[in-house]
Amino acid sequence: MEHYLVLSGLSALGTIAGSLPALLIRNLSHRGKDILLAYSAGVMVAASTYGLIPSALKLSNLYVLTFGIVLGTVLLTLLERYIPHTDPAHDSDAAAVSSASRMLLIMSMTLHNLPEGLSTGISLADQDPQLGAIVSFAIGVQNLPEGFLIALVFASTQSRMLKPVLYVCGVTAAEWFASLLGYNFGSELRFLIPYGLAFAGGAMLYIVYKELIPESHGDGNETPATFAFIFGTLTMIGLTHWLD
């Protein structure tokens, strides 16, 4: 349990750590934002394809893996369709985002962080300690630019710095709670761990392809975003190789 608390806490705190620079940097170019998003996408793809999916396949079979990935994709699709939310607007002036849109943005980020938290918890419940470390690190790295972008939207229109931090802390708490559910779920019902790992892998791939890649290519910065995606992928591959 101590191993879980340390790694899941560090992973979730990545969102808060990433938000702090945004309190000092009130304006970020679309190019910078797209590079951060693409790097995060690369990290998540590698975490899924080199961590979650191989582990699920090792513990089960192709049928379990397919079921879990499809289930994660379908569930995220249903949540996206039926839970009101919005995504960061492509606008050079973050102040143009209305109060209602900012609150919907928080709901959107919270929605995206739930499968990430589940991924962390389920991987830490697995008997392979390296898997938990890899996934926790991957989610923590991905949370850095995410926290930065959330805080940036709010800090751009707030004179006080405390409010953006509180919003980010709320998103962080939701992710950690999801990781706790994933950990308890995996600990009590170990035979379902491969399903959970495949589910988390599918959910992460959905977020990357549905949200992060289109968002990072929306402002004409396809080339630097592509390189950032590749470097993010290599970061996780290198980490996986180093831990083996």
UniProtKB/TrEMBL annotation:
Coiled coil: none
Pfam families the record matches: Zip (PF02535)
Keywords, alphabetical: Cell membrane, Membrane, Transmembrane, Transmembrane helix, Zinc
Cell compartments where the protein resides: Cell membrane
Membrane topology summary: Multi-pass membrane protein
InterPro entries named among the record's database cross-references: ZIP
Transmembrane segments annotated in the record for this chain: 6-24, 36-56, 62-82, 131-153, 165-186, 192-213, 225-243
Domain of life: Bacteria
Family, as annotated: Belongs to the ZIP transporter (TC 2.A.5) family.
Name assigned to this protein: ZIP family metal transporter
Organism: Paenibacillus xanthanilyticus
